[in-house]
Design goal:
GO molecular function: xylosyl alpha-1,3-xylosyltransferase activity
Structural class: alpha/beta
Organism: Muraenolepis orangiensis (Patagonian moray cod)
Number of domains: 1
Order of helices and strands: HHEHEHEHHEEHEHHEHHHHEEHE
Helix content: 40-55%
CATH topology: Spore Coat Polysaccharide Biosynthesis Protein SpsA, Chain A
CATH architecture: Alpha-Beta Complex
Keywords: Membrane, Transmembrane, Transmembrane helix
Number of strands: 10
CATH class: Alpha Beta
Protein name: Xyloside xylosyltransferase 1
Strand content: 5-15%
Radius of gyration: 28 Å
InterPro entries: Nucleotide-diphossugar_trans, XXLT1
């Protein structure tokens, strides 16, 4: 009987000890879970934006009180889950989709303000991203235009159902960084002192891989006079079609101006059998920079492309093609595309359906349609040379 009592007491102590252990184990597990949950709630721009957008989209309430967080800096810190420093990240995919627009002198131009409103409203209307994805809108701007842009963005982004971030870049700061790189190009591809494209900033896409942080590896640059007919996220899928070694993509020009006016006319006269300036699909008509896809990582890695930025090589190609243009980066890319088409991926014309018909009425009616024709679906309208875009 005494032995039985000892056994019972011993079992009771063991049972009590195991219960105590179990309680401690549960408490420790909850503590660890709480640590990771609260520790991972970073108070950064992305998480703040996410909370703003979630509150904006919940049952469409409080829309008139929506707050748009604006940041005027682009940090060098890599995004969580993103690509870092141009290294191979394997399965990691950056959930940030970067779009850049030139937004200078807008405060003085009512026409551009209206075009910007049309572009942004159509982008928002068709925009559709996964829950963890963020559309990052970059604007290169002066102080007065930035102030206007902040007010306009409150309106045009109000109905966005996706997360977004807004980044303003100071035009003076970027020009200062760009000028040493693109100075040699300006005399070949600018209209002259004081002209719109004579400023170094309009060569930004040429040297963006030197200006933007290393963790930013892909970006789309677009004009303001666009109207989107599809989800802009789909445009980023075109990066997946780049063959190895290609770093830049744009649709070809849809007018004969590059082929005959200001640019290749003398070279074509001296080389009558050349493909340079001929219409698609077999010719090389040059590019339109209204929609540009830039693989910044590939641009940084391309020894050939970076050699082409050197002043001596710019001068050599410009002399070879008897090239004198006035459209900034568009002229530079068109020229090197004649010599090195392997660097470029040609987008379908529907990704930048250029609507300008000015050259048809100014001497090129017979050949105009050869360049202007665009078969297939239209994803983005481009109202270049102040052409009205179609209504929905």
């Amino acid at each position: 009987m005494g032995i039985l009592k000892v056994v019972v007491c011993t079992m009771g102590r063991i049972s009590t000890f195991r219960s105590y252990q179990f309680i401690l184990l549960v408490a420790a597990t909850l503590a660890v879970a709480a640590f990771y949950y609260f520790g991972s709630e970073r108070q950064n721009f992305s998480s703040t934006t996410k909370r703003i957008k979630q509150s904006q989209s919940s049952y469409n309430t409080n829309r008139n009180d929506a707050d748009l967080t604006l940041d005027t800096r682009l940090t060098d810190q890599p995004h969580e889950h993103g690509e870092q420093g141009g290294e191979d990240t394997g399965a990691l995919v950056d959930p940030h989709f970067h779009v850049l627009m030139m937004f200078t002198k807008i405060d003085k131009n009512r026409s551009l303000q209206e075009k910007f409103r049309v572009a942004m409203l159509s982008m928002v209307k068709h925009g559709d991203f996964l829950e963890e994805e963020v559309l990052v809108l970059h604007f290169v701007s002066d102080p007065a235009s930035q102030e206007l842009g902040q007010r306009m963005l409150q309106e045009v982004l109000l109905d966005a159902t996706f997360q977004y971030e807004v980044v303003f870049h100071d035009v003076v700061d970027l020009t200062h960084k760009l000028f040493p790189i693109v100075e040699a190009m300006q005399k070949y591809f600018s209209a002259g002192s004081g002209a719109y494209y004579s400023d170094a900033i309009f060569f930004l896409s040429v040297a963006m891989h030197h200006i933007m942080p290393q963790n930013l590896t892909r970006i789309v640059q677009v004009d303001l006079d666009l109207k989107y007919r599809t989800n802009i996220r789909d445009l980023f899928q075109q990066f997946d079609h780049f063959p190895r070694g290609q770093s830049w993509a744009s649709p070809e020009r849809c007018s004969p101006s590059t082929a005959h006016i200001h640019t290749f006319w003398q070279y074509r006269k001296e080389n009558p059998s050349t493909r340079v300036g001929e219409p698609p699909p077999d010719g090389l008509p040059g590019f339109n920079s209204g929609v540009i896809l830039l693989d910044l990582r590939a641009m940084r890695a391309s020894a050939l492309y970076n050699r082409l930025l050197e002043p001596g090589n710019v001068a050599k190609l410009a002399d070879q093609y008897r090239f004198r243009g006035h459209l900034g980066d568009q002229d530079f890319f068109s020229m090197i595309g004649m010599q090195h088409p392997e660097l470029f991926y040609v987008l379908a014309c529907g990704w930048n359906r250029q609507l300008c018909t000015w050259w048809r009425e100014h001497g090129y009616r017979e050949v105009f349609q050869l360049y202007y024709r665009c078969d297939g679906p239209i994803y983005i309208y481009h109202g270049n040379c102040n052409t009205a875009v179609p209504d929905d």
